[in-house]
Amino acid sequence: MSDPKEYFKQPVFHLLGKELLRRYWLKGAFGNSVGLSLFSKVDTDPLRSFLGLTVLSWDQKKRIQIVDLEQAFIESILEWSLSDFVVSLQRNH
């Protein structure tokens, strides 16, 4: 993939971004975790691999921690915060 931002156009990241935006709008914060049931209708492999989790560890999870998401974005090639991620999705709509 030539543009790293293209990776985040996958449906699982759109759902994640919408949920984070909703939480921030309602509560002024992203919260502590996101339930994986939110992603029941989309392929979660892109998010799983972005977080560096094996299929086995992913299958045992029920929630992903916001701090883990934040760390993964910071350590990505884009060096984004969660806020940067949410804003980037809004710009693409």
**Count, helices:** 6
User: What structural class do you assign from the helix and strand content?
Assistant: mainly alpha
Strand order of the largest sheet: 1-2
> How many strands in all?
2
| Straight-line N-to-C gap | 21 Å
User: Percent of residues in helical segments?
Assistant: 55-70%
**Unreliable runs:** none
Q: Taking Cα atoms only, what radius of gyration do you get, to the nearest Å?
A: 13 Å
Mean pLDDT: 91
> How much of the sequence is in beta strands?
5-15%
From the spread of the alpha carbons, the general shape counts as globular
Helix-strand pattern: HHEHHEHH
Give a structural overview.
By secondary structure, the chain is mostly helical. Helices cover 57% and strands 6% of the residues. The chain has helices at 4-7, 11-27, 45-50, 55-60, 66-75, 82-91, and strands at residues 33-35, 63-65. Strands 1-2 form a two-stranded antiparallel sheet. α2 (11-27) packs across α6. The mean pLDDT is 91.
Task: Give short descriptive properties of this protein.
globular, 93 residues
Give the secondary structure arrangement, pairings included.
Layout: H1 4-7, H2 11-27, E1 33-35, H3 45-50, H4 55-60, E2 63-65, H5 66-75, H6 82-91
Antiparallel strand pairs: 1-2
